[in-house]
Amino acid sequence: MRTTVRTAILLIAAVALIAVSGCGGGSDQDSAASAASSASESSADVAAKDSTFFAMLDIAGVTVTDKPRFIAAAVTLCEAMSSGTSYTDASSAIDVGLDETGNAKVASAGIAAYCPDQQVKMATG
């Protein structure tokens, strides 16, 4: 079952990334939430990533209740994975008030938007 969920999420992430690539925009509140972890990026880059993240969650049917909390969870996931934590361990730490499937969708969208270089870890666990 877990492999099926992971495969479905990988497919959702891939489709969503293609669908929203090149999208920009986002509110100042969204951008401010992720600016602390990406101070070296331009505000336009941060806003584009935030916009991609929320568009992917929308496509996946996830209701976002607290944008800064969702961004923080995704950025923390990316930082953990970039530091060597496995996808399984990093994604299991996601807690934005959703069930396991919802949290997995947040993890998938977060990786696609904020750290696409870590996507390979989704397939390997």
Give a structural overview:
The chain has 125 residues and is an all-alpha fold. The protein has one domain. Helices cover 69% and strands 0% of the residues. It is built from 7 helices and no strands. It has helices at 2-20, 28-35, 43-59, 67-82, 87-92, 100-114, 120-124. Helix 4 crosses helix 6. The two termini are 14 Å apart. Residues 15-38 have low confidence and may be disordered.
What is the helical fraction, as a range of percent?
55-70%
What kind of sheet is the major sheet?
Answer: none
Mean pLDDT: 79
Low confidence ranges: 15-38
The H/E string reads HHHHHHH
**Estimated share of beta-strand residues:** under 5%
Summarize this structure briefly.
This is DUF732 domain-containing protein. Residues 49-117 form the DUF732 domain. The chain has 125 residues and is an all-alpha fold.
